[in-house]
Specification:
β3 and β4 form a beta hairpin. The strands form three sheets. The protein has a three-stranded mixed beta sheet, covered by helices on one side. Strands 1-2 form a two-stranded antiparallel sheet. Helices cover 26% and strands 14% of the residues. The radius of gyration is 19 Å and the shape is elongated. The longest helix has 18 residues. It is built from five helices and seven strands; from the N terminus they run αββββαββαααβ. The protein has 193 residues and is α/β, with parallel strands linked by helices.
Length: 193
């Protein structure tokens, strides 16, 4: 009987690992026109997870996935991981890279797509209530206080602002590579022009 239980556990583990294995070759995602005429990607996102996870790689997840989901898909945390160095409950975005730090590493070494701010800090929650971030004057660290804005995306916002003479409205953020409708909706009440 014990052999049958062990065999069943092995088979189930194999099935789970196969379903959550990294994407080895990323095929193009089907694009279909939305009601408004602009194309939208299928209801999934690709996330690159690395650092202190069992199986680093690129994973295809549902659009409502959280950091904890991609870590679970990657086989969980290693013994060296610092789980408090990353917000496990944060929602993911397509094309994001998540780096799980090791114990003793500074959370500010997190990769593009993460907040780049230590969990629990005043900047972790974004701008303070009532304090709007001005897209036309904010520097990189100020932009990084906004949810889902890391160093790379902050730099793209600044570059777009410099190349285009500033933002005339918050909706101009859609022209910045890496910002879509969902992120714009999350930022709309936190920024001004």
């Amino acid at each position: 009987m014990l052999v049958v239980v062990a065999l069943a556990i092995t088979v189930i583990t194999g099935i789970v690992r196969t379903m959550a294995s990294p994407v080895e070759s990323v095929a193009s995602v089907a694009v279909t026109p939305a009601a408004g005429g602009s194309p939208t990607a299928a209801a999934e996102l690709y996330v690159h997870v690395h650092g202190q996870v069992a199986r680093p790689g690129i994973y295809r997840l549902a659009t409502d996935a959280r950091v904890i989901d991609v870590i679970a898909a990657a086989g969980g945390l290693t013994r060296k991981a610092e789980p408090s160095g990353i917000n496990l409950a944060r929602a993911l975005t397509d094309g994001e890279q998540v780096r799980v730090p090791a114990r003793g590493e500074e959370p500010s070494t997190l990769s593009e797509g993460s907040t780049g701010v230590p969990p629990g800090s005043s900047a972790d929650a974004g701008a303070a209530p009532g304090d709007l971030v001005d897209l036309n004057t904010a520097d990189g660290p100020t932009l990084e206080t906004l949810p889902r804005i890391g160093p790379a995306l902050a730099q793209r916002i600044i570059e777009w602002r410099e190349q285009n003479g500033g933002f005339s409205s918050v909706d101009d953020l859609l022209a910045v590579p890496g910002i879509g409708d969902k992120m714009l909706d999350a930022l709309r009440d936190l920024v001004t022009t």
